[in-house]
Amino acid sequence: MSYPDGRILLNSQREGQVSRFRFWVLLAVPLAAILFQAYVPLFFQFLRYLEVPMLVVVYFAIMQRSQISGLLIGAVVGLAQDSLTTEPLGMYGIAKTLVGYFAASVGLRLDVDHPVIRLLLCFFFYIVHKFFYWVILRAMFGKPLPFDIQNTLVLALLNAVVGVSLFHFLDKLREPA
User: Fold this and answer.
1) Strand, coil or helix: 17
2) Residue range 83-102, pLDDT digits in tens
């Protein structure tokens, strides 16, 4: 259903409301996601395919419905993730900054409390994140890395399913309205 202001509504009781989080949540959740991404795959190789920091950026960006907040969350999480990897500094920072901005833009237009919408957003933004990362590698560093679309689609689906359950958990950490 579409309304004159351009916002698409899907039976949400929290329509148009910006979610608020306690300060410790805004620090602890991204930090836990970054540490998960850096250290858990060292022990469990099959978990290296999860992009938990990107999912956290998408969640906070769509829930706060502010493009500036999305930019800042994406930049901070991306640069922190860069500092713990062997990749050049700024690779994840740029990709996550762009994802945060676009996720916040979508959060302004859609009811993002619906699980199907969240699944689609996680799927879409994983692909966007991988594409931006691939473009940055090719453009800035000249690395001839192929973009494997089949692998990306499968991993996007995996991250989308994990993202929906992660978003459900993070909803519990929102401050009551």
Assistant:
1) coil
2) 988 888 889 999 999 999 99
Nearest to 107 by CA among 59, 176, 164: 59
Q: Is residue 13 part of a domain?
A: no
Note the pTM of the prediction, 2 decimals: 0.87
Length in residues, the chain: 177
> Which of 121, 118, 113 is closest to 15 using CA atoms?
113
Spatial separation of the C-alpha atoms in residues 92 and 75, rounded to whole Å: 8
Q: List the domain range (segments joined by +) for residue 63.
A: 23-41+50-171
Nearest to 75 by CA among 97, 44, 101, 104: 97
Decide: residue 93, CB within 10 A, 0-12 exposed, 13-18 middle, 19+ buried. Answer: buried
